[in-house]
Amino acid sequence: MMKAVSRTGSKMLGRKQSQQGSTGSASSISATDASGLTDAQRECVNKMKEANPSVDAATVERFAKARDYKFDTCNKLLQEDIKWREKVKPAEIKQSDCPKALPYGAWRSLGVSTGPRELCKHSKVATIWIQVTLWFPSMYDTEEYIRLAVYFCDRVLTKQAEKVIIIFDMSGWSMGLAFHLPKVLALLSVLQDHYVERLEAALLLRTPAIFSASWNVIKGLMNRATAAAVAFLPTNKAKEAEALAKYVNPAVLPAIYGGSVDGASVPCPNIEGEENFTILTKKGW
User: Which pTM does this prediction carry?
Assistant: First the structure.
C-alpha cells in the first residue's frame, strides 16, 4: 500500500515548511521590504514588470516566486504563459468545447471554503472535486482534457477565490488508466506552468496501491512548489475525514468524506455564473 504522506514524503499532515528563495540561506539574506522580499527578489520582480508591462503585478509576483526569483528562468516562464494564453484563450473556453470530458461529472466544484483550517494558509479557497470512477479518458483526446482543466481553473480562480484545493478521489484507478498518463501530465503542466502559485493543495484520497507506478512518473515531473502541495490522506475513513477538515470546511464536503453535502446532488460544473446540467451516468453516447 502507498504510505499516507504529506508534502513530498514528510510526516503525514505535517505543516508546510517555509521555502527559501534563490538568494541564499536565512543567514545570508539581506533586509526585506514591506512585502517580505529581499532587495534581490524585489529587483527581479521590478525587472519582470518592466519586461512585461501588460501583465498585472500579482501575476508577475507569482511567476517570480515560482522560479525562486531567478530572472531569466521566471521571465521565460511568464512569457511562455503569455503566448499560451493568446493561443488557448482560457476565458473563452465554453462547456461546448468539452463535449465528452465534462458531462460525466468527473470534475465538479465544491464552492469556497472559508474560515480557519489548520493546514490551509488562506481563509478563502475554492475546491475542485475530481472522481476517478467518473473519468473516462478514452472517450476524448488530450486537447479536450486540457480545455476541461483550463475551463475549471479559469472559472474558479476568477469567480471564486485566488487559491484552489483539488480533491482527487482515486477510487477506481486501474492499470488501464495508466495508459492515459499524458492527460494527467497535461493537467500537471496547466497547474504548474500556467496557474502558477494558485494551487493551495492537491489531496489524494482512497488511493489504491496500483497507483504507485503511475505516481512515480508523475512526481518526477513536478516542480518543488507543486510537489510540496501534494498530500496522500489516510485510508481509514474517520482519519480521512479528520485530515480533510484541516484543509476544507466540512460544510462544502460531500458526506462520503465526513462533510454535510449530499455528493450525488452536487451538479456539474457547480460554478457561479455557469449553467449546470444533469450528470451522465453511463459510458457511451
Answer: 0.86
